[in-house]
Amino acid sequence: MTEVRDIAAATTRRAVVVQDVHRSFGDREILRGVDLGVGAGEFVALLGASGSGKSTLLRIIGDLDHGARGRVAVPARTSVAFQEPRLLPWRRVWRNVAFGLPAAGRRHRALAALDEVGLAHVADVWPKTLSGGEAQRVALARALVRDPQLLLLDEPLAALDALTRLKMQQLIGQLWARHRLTAILVTHDVDEALVLADRAVVLRDGRLADELPITLERPRDPGSVHFAALRARLLGWLGVTAPRP
Amino acid sequence: MTAISDTGLRELSLRGERGGLRIPRWTRRVAVVVALVALWQLVSALGWPPENTLSSPLQVAGAAVDLISGGDLGEAMATSVTRVATGLALGVPAGLLLALTSGLFRAGEDLVDSPMQMLRTLPFLGITPLFILWFGVGDTPKIALVVLGVCFPVYINTFVGIRNVDAKLVEAARTFDRGRWRLTRSVIIPGALPNILVGVRLALGTAWLALVVGEQINADGGIGYLMLNAQNNLETDTIVVCLVLYALLGLSSDLIVRGLERLLLSWRQNFAGA
Predict the structure, then answer these.
(1) Contacts across the A-B interface (CB distance below 8 Å)
(2) Does residue B42 sit within a domain?
(3) Does the first or last residue of chain A, that is N or C, have fewer Cβ atoms within 10 Å of its Cβ?
(4) DSSP per residue over B90-137, as a string?
(5) Which of B35, B55, B24, B104 is nearest to B238 (CA)?
(6) Per-domain residue ranges for chain A?
């Protein structure tokens, strides 16, 4: 894989490099030459209208879709959290978290990861007994337990209720900071992007059309004037114009 | 506080918790069986149907006692159970293996599935004459018939089970563990297990059916042999004993699979946690 190493070397301290990626499904070209660099430790939110190809791009970066053209380089350890928890219903919670870990010390590692998401007490139950938010936290623990360098989040909060979603946003922010992860979050939720990300990029017509650095201090206050200004800009790019007061 | 009767509303009749003596459901189930047997005994005692058409329950019970004490029944049962067990031991793994081949690999599906689907439409008992020509009259043709009958339900249900495993689960699991065998063992097979067990249950029913046919066409020991002898001697009581025995054996093999289901699929029912 010398080619891949070359791209990584050319762009120092990059955790993800995407160059000229194209992806078609039948006649429809969803991605038409996407270029994206993500710095080590950076949190990037990937926004776009429905069908803009943001999940497709994430799947390509996550090594789940090999039908694309172009070049992509990622760190050795990458974890994904999906919109659905996707826990194996026939494995106890801790065994789901420990899935794929080497046998030595895996229960200990799984319990530590569950503790981080506040769910050590459900380690021995079946996944079906969990609520939606709990299951999603277990999925997060499963992603974190293998100490990833890159965490890919494919709308992991989209199916949760509003209160749980706010709590999960905080949790993701904390985990990202504590583990010094590089993270890419696909989301529809502009506020979520503004609370969590260092940078928001908008995918439109198969390309990265807009980019917004988010330099607000953390933790961020969705009620602040600056936050509102950024929100209005992002929404404008996504084709939503706020009504004038 | 206003008296509820003054409100002009319709008062609901609340009965409180149901207390007192309740008859357990199993007694009702047993009672039905007992009543039917009693009715049969009554009708037989009245002389209808004639004894050489159908014996009375008491005669059947007597015949059963004779057959058990004479050792005939035990011997026949051992022979039959061994044949079914051997057939299952060969047929179930064969069906599983074929289904794994065609379920996990596209190439396997192309090679295995269409012949299996073609053979499946053939009523397998129709092949009995050929099996007798090929394998003679011993245990082999009977076991072969069981193997053939068992193979298809296991194959079809396992194949469906494998293909119904949620692709999203497989994808997620693959991001965490790329080993193909481990993925098969910990995601695909457990995901297909409910269907596999349905296949095994159907297979057990088919196994006894295949044995009954096999043992009656050319009798060489076993329950079918006992029945064929009884038929030649017009012993309807012995025939009924054999029928009851078949039913009990079928029932107990079904119970075994149900126990297996409860054990292996506890994750589907167990909501006691959290």
Answers:
(1) 59
(2) no
(3) C
(4) HHHHHHHHHHHHHHH-HHHIIIIIHHHHHHHTS-GGGGHHHHHHHHTT
(5) B55
(6) 2-77+148-237, 92-147
CATH number of the domain enclosing B190:
1.10.3720.10
The reply to whether residue B271 touches residue A129, judged by beta carbons under 8 angstroms, is yes
Cβ-defined contact of B267 to A90 (cutoff 8 Å): yes
Per-residue pLDDT reduced to its tens digit, B205-233: 999 999 988 888 877 888 988 888 888 88
Q: Which of residues 21-80 of A touch B (CB under 8 A)?
A: 62-64, 78-80
Closest CB to B171 among A64, A91, A142 = A64
Instruction: Say if B271 falls within a structural domain.
Output: no
Chain A interface includes B168 (CB < 8 A): yes
Number of domains in chain B: 1
- Whether the per-residue pLDDT at B21 is higher than 70: the answer is no
ipTM: 0.84
- CA B3/CA A238 separation, integer angstroms: 63
Domain assignment of residue B147, given as a range: 58-264
Structure tokens at B127: 């092949």
- Over chain A (245 residues), the average pLDDT of each successive run of 10 is 44 84 94 95 94 94 93 94 94 94 93 95 94 94 94 93 92 94 95 96 94 93 94 92 67
Best B168, B175, B181 residue to mutate vs chain A (most A CBs within 10 Å): B175
What pLDDT, on a 0 to 100 scale, did the predictor assign at position A214? Answer: 95
